[in-house]
């Protein structure tokens, strides 16, 4: 149910990131919603890629979290840029399943 609610979000705090990993970043990014998550994301390529392209943000403490949220909520241009980056990341990487299954069928 949560994955279908992301379409109404401005930004999304993806759960966890302070334990062994994070929840699914693509569920929000597919709607062009910038994602925020804790520091333990290294095992998740999508999270690393979203940070690199500007559609994802990681924080380690509440001050950093507040800075990221304020930057996105208070600055429409920053929010729009991050939203577009998240959306374009998903579009650019669409079709991975078909590519993988095609490789396996060789």
Oligomeric status of the shown chains? single chain
Strand count: 3
CATH architecture: 3-Layer(aba) Sandwich
Q: Which strand order does the major sheet show?
A: 1-2-3
Overall average residue pLDDT:
93
Number of domains: 1
Helix content: 40-55%
CATH topology type: Rossmann fold
Shape: globular
Strand content: 5-15%
Q: Name the CATH superfamily classification.
A: Glycogen Phosphorylase B
Low-confidence stretches: none
Structure description:
The protein is built from 6 helices and 3 strands; from the N terminus they run H-E-H-E-H-E-H-H-H. By secondary structure, the protein is mainly alpha-helical. Strand 1, helix 2 and strand 2 form a beta-alpha-beta unit. Helix 4 packs across helix 5. The protein is globular, with a radius of gyration of 14 Å.
Q: What keyword list fits this structure?
A:
mainly alpha; globular; 8% strand; Rossmann fold; three-stranded parallel sheet; 106 residues
Report a brief summary of the structure.
With 106 residues, the chain is mainly alpha-helical.
SSE map:
Blueprint: H1 2-5, E1 12-13, H2 26-29, E2 35-37, H3 45-53, E3 56-58, H4 62-74, H5 76-92, H6 96-104
Parallel strand pairs: 1-2, 2-3
